[in-house]
Amino acid sequence: MKDALVPVLVVIGLLLLAGLTLFLVRRPRRGALPPTEQPRPGIERGEQVPPSVITAPAPEKAPERVTPTKPAVPAPAPPAAGETAPPVEAPPAPAAPEIEQPEPTAGRLVRLRARLSRSQNVFGKGLLGLLSRDHLDDDAWDEVEESLISADVGVQATTEIVAKLRERTRVLGTRTSSDLRTLLTEELTEALDPKLDRSLHTGVVDGRPSVILVVGVNGAGKTTSCGKIARVLVADGHTVVLGAADTFRAAAAEQLATWGSRVGAQVVRGPEGGDPAAVAFDAVKKGIEAGVDTVLIDTAGRLQNKVGLMDELGKIKRVVEKHGPVSETLLVLDATAGQNGLSQARVFTEVADVTGVVLTKLDGTAKGGIVIAVQRALGIPVKLVGLGEGPDDLAPFDPQQFVAALLGDE
Ligand SMILES: Nc1nc2c(ncn2[C@@H]2O[C@H](COP(=O)(O)OP(=O)(O)OP(=O)(O)O)[C@@H](O)[C@H]2O)c(=O)[nH]1
């Protein structure tokens, strides 16, 4: 009887052991989470997916007692009920852009005078060298003339300048280098018509902000100049709203938004390809609401043909003038474009009432005389000059400072 009980007890013992093992293996550990169902391709969309395409769920953290063949991937899991969540580190909030306060613009041209080094070679070294020759015969004067024309001064202005220089050097007789510098300074300054009004028409007029339209051919540096003019205005104590009415080029609005954010100027933009006049209108509206003193509007002004340009700029002007008159239209010109730039410029002056010129890229040319040619050809003052790609490389134009910079140091 006793012998008969032994196998029965062994069987019962084995069954108990097996049961206990099963219980321990299947029991979830305290704190462990149920495995997260991984999305399987096709299944969520109710498609029939061949078994080979169904990806296996990602390996869950296995119970410690089960030795995994591969190291388990520790998945970040929310804590189980009752557990305190570890402090979550919030991503750092994007730092508010630092508002820059550019230096007032007085003396910028003097600070940037070295940027005219290429033109200085022609005017300072070249012309002064020619004029200091002992005998100024016809050949020497021809050379003076050629130098001025090659510096883009223009034929008419060159003829006048040379005629005056000839007369004055003859009267002067013997010439010291300082006499010659004075002579040349006076004649070049005179050719730049120092009496012209070069101030920007800014500030509140009849309770509304002034409106400045910025026009010009693509690539002349129009959008960049708009951004720099905003800085010039802020630097000199004005408050500005920018209108990105160049809806033709998406990047232009983006560019302007960046310029604006750096000096705390709001930028009004529209959808790409949208109506530029609508953006211009909204910009002025925003300027009135925000109580700023100047609204600066960048336009696309693409020069496909004169009629198209006239239509676009005309519409912008008409729509903006529902708020009040446009105070100023600035034409942006590339100094390196020479005579070709001048004929493009004429088209703009014919379709828009241009009141001032912004001459960019003077740092990139030896032909600083273009300033004289532009003013003469268009009859419009150069108000600002671009002397580099830096944000504050745009200077109010001053004929005396400019000529002094052209002639270089004594
Ligand atoms: N060296 C130099 N580069 C300048 C100056 N002004 C503008 N630029 C550069 O000229 C290039 C063209 O400038 P943009 O402002 O994009 O020209 P844009 O006329 O607005 O062109 P669109 O928006 O296509 O009409 C940029 O690389 C500017 O940095 C300047 O005074 N000197």
From TrEMBL:
<keyword id="KW-0812">Transmembrane</keyword>
<feature type="binding site">
    <location>
        <begin position="360"/>
        <end position="363"/>
    </location>
    <ligand>
        <name>GTP</name>
    </ligand>
</feature>
<protein>
    <recommendedName>
        <fullName>Signal recognition particle receptor FtsY</fullName>
        <ecNumber>3.6.5.4</ecNumber>
    </recommendedName>
</protein>
<dbReference type="InterPro" id="IPR036225">
    <property type="entry name" value="SRP/SRP_N"/>
</dbReference>
<keyword id="KW-1133">Transmembrane helix</keyword>
<dbReference type="Pfam" id="PF02881">
    <property type="entry name" value="SRP54_N"/>
</dbReference>
<keyword id="KW-0378">Hydrolase</keyword>
<dbReference type="InterPro" id="IPR042101">
    <property type="entry name" value="SRP54_N_sf"/>
</dbReference>
<keyword id="KW-0675">Receptor</keyword>
<comment type="similarity">
    <text>Belongs to the GTP-binding SRP family. FtsY subfamily.</text>
</comment>
<keyword id="KW-1003">Cell membrane</keyword>
<feature type="domain" description="SRP54-type proteins GTP-binding">
    <location>
        <begin position="381"/>
        <end position="394"/>
    </location>
</feature>
<dbReference type="InterPro" id="IPR027417">
    <property type="entry name" value="P-loop_NTPase"/>
</dbReference>
<dbReference type="GO" id="GO:0003924">
    <property type="term" value="F:GTPase activity"/>
</dbReference>
<keyword id="KW-0342">GTP-binding</keyword>
<dbReference type="InterPro" id="IPR003593">
    <property type="entry name" value="AAA+_ATPase"/>
</dbReference>
<dbReference type="GO" id="GO:0005886">
    <property type="term" value="C:plasma membrane"/>
</dbReference>
<dbReference type="InterPro" id="IPR013822">
    <property type="entry name" value="Signal_recog_particl_SRP54_hlx"/>
</dbReference>
<feature type="region of interest" description="Disordered">
    <location>
        <begin position="31"/>
        <end position="100"/>
    </location>
</feature>
<feature type="binding site">
    <location>
        <begin position="216"/>
        <end position="223"/>
    </location>
    <ligand>
        <name>GTP</name>
    </ligand>
</feature>
<feature type="transmembrane region" description="Helical">
    <location>
        <begin position="6"/>
        <end position="25"/>
    </location>
</feature>
<dbReference type="Pfam" id="PF00448">
    <property type="entry name" value="SRP54"/>
</dbReference>
<dbReference type="GO" id="GO:0005047">
    <property type="term" value="F:signal recognition particle binding"/>
</dbReference>
<dbReference type="GO" id="GO:0005737">
    <property type="term" value="C:cytoplasm"/>
</dbReference>
<comment type="subunit">
    <text>Part of the signal recognition particle protein translocation system, which is composed of SRP and FtsY.</text>
</comment>
<dbReference type="GO" id="GO:0005525">
    <property type="term" value="F:GTP binding"/>
</dbReference>
<keyword id="KW-0472">Membrane</keyword>
<comment type="function">
    <text>Involved in targeting and insertion of nascent membrane proteins into the cytoplasmic membrane. Acts as a receptor for the complex formed by the signal recognition particle (SRP) and the ribosome-nascent chain (RNC).</text>
</comment>
<dbReference type="GO" id="GO:0006614">
    <property type="term" value="P:SRP-dependent cotranslational protein targeting to membrane"/>
</dbReference>
<keyword id="KW-0963">Cytoplasm</keyword>
<feature type="binding site">
    <location>
        <begin position="298"/>
        <end position="302"/>
    </location>
    <ligand>
        <name>GTP</name>
    </ligand>
</feature>
<keyword id="KW-0547">Nucleotide-binding</keyword>
<dbReference type="InterPro" id="IPR004390">
    <property type="entry name" value="SR_rcpt_FtsY"/>
</dbReference>
<dbReference type="InterPro" id="IPR000897">
    <property type="entry name" value="SRP54_GTPase_dom"/>
</dbReference>
